[in-house]
Description:
Blueprint: E1 6-14, E2 30-37, H1 40-45, H2 47-53, H3 62-73, E3 77-79, E4 81-85, E5 90-94, E6 96-101, E7 104-109, E8 123-124, H4 129-141, H5 143-149, E9 154-161, H6 165-176, E10 180-185, E11 189-193, H7 198-203, H8 207-221, E12 225-230, H9 233-253, H10 263-278, E13 282-289, E14 292-301, E15 305-313, H11 322-336, E16 341-346, H12 350-354, E17 358-360, E18 362-368, H13 372-402
Parallel strand pairs: 7-9, 15-16
Antiparallel strand pairs: 1-2, 2-4, 3-6, 4-5, 5-8, 6-7, 9-18, 10-18, 11-16, 11-17, 12-13, 13-14, 14-15
Amino acid sequence: MSLTSVHSVSTYDCVPVVSPSQPNQLAWRxxxxxxxxxxxxxxxxxxxxxxxxxxxxxxxxxxxLRSWWEELGSKHGQLAIARVHDSExxxxxxxFFVERTWRGTTxxxxxxxxTCTDYLDIFCRPGSSLQVAHALGDWLDSARFRQTFGAIDxxxxxxxxxxxxxxxxxxxxxxxxGWSEEIAPLESSWVVDFPPTWDECVARLSxxxxxRARNAIKNLQSGKMTFHVxxxxxxxxxxxxxxxxxxxxxxxQKGELGCFAEGPFEQFLRRAVFRLAAIGxxxxxxxRFEDQTIATALxxxxxxxxxxxxxxMDSDHxxxxxxxxxxxxxxxxxxxxxxxDFDFLRGNEPYxxxxxxxxxxxxxxxxxxxxxxxxxxxxxxxxxRCVKQWFQxxxxxxxxxxx
Length: 403
């Protein structure tokens, strides 16, 4: 397959059925096409439409997903982005790639895996998710798609909101075509919905939390510590290694290797962050004590939300509670710049709830082709999970009996 090719896969007449409960959702009649984008150059050519349909979310941006593909995805699969459109405008993008494993030919979201690209979806114009889903269903069944990728055994959609409109619509369409479904919960993301003032934000915390937040601000106001935000591209580049070093130092203290021990991940994240910093959507933050950086954080930004991706701290200064200090300042800084909310992203660490964040459930959806070979693979995978769970339960029981 040519790396620069773009294939017009299928065109069909969309004749929507108007929902009585949502009479305006499908109030149009038209013709949609699906075009396969399998090259970086063609993907970049649609940057304006992509940014519009992803609403400026940094983890859904081309800067983020393209970096993931270049460093982590392209070695294991084929780019398979679907652009859904009529003759005049784009209605949706499905950010997919195809990989082949023992589970068969699998269609997955770009950004899947350890990068934790949260809130992924099939990106659609408001009110058009069902039309886009029908177009994608026809695309998947088309002869041209099968000539390019073969028949898909499994669709695995990881890290989406439980009620993601694009994914949910496609689930419904494929269910009517005989695809089986399994949905598994992942760790939640955690979001602080800001009240109008910082004092109200602090008032929500526990007594201990309020004390820590106020102490952090007091230490910074007194000059004992300083807080720095590096939001220009060149500054982010300059301070990148400090961030990596402190992140790894904290992981090593906990007996973990840390994600930056894997070269490809560091290369991906560095490339993505530098690209986002160039367009004002990423920054590094540092807390310093006596001119030494004791805590650092990587955050990303949309118009109304700040996202905390990773932090690091100097374990030699743990008595200064650098983690509490930097979290307090990140929240205060985001609230002061007019953000509506602060997103700690995926991971059920207890400190997130202590800072007033509420859990947002994320899930992984697997959809299995109705053909026999795919269903056999689904059954084998389910049996394997049951056996693994049995051994885990048996091991836990044995440990309790020994105790």
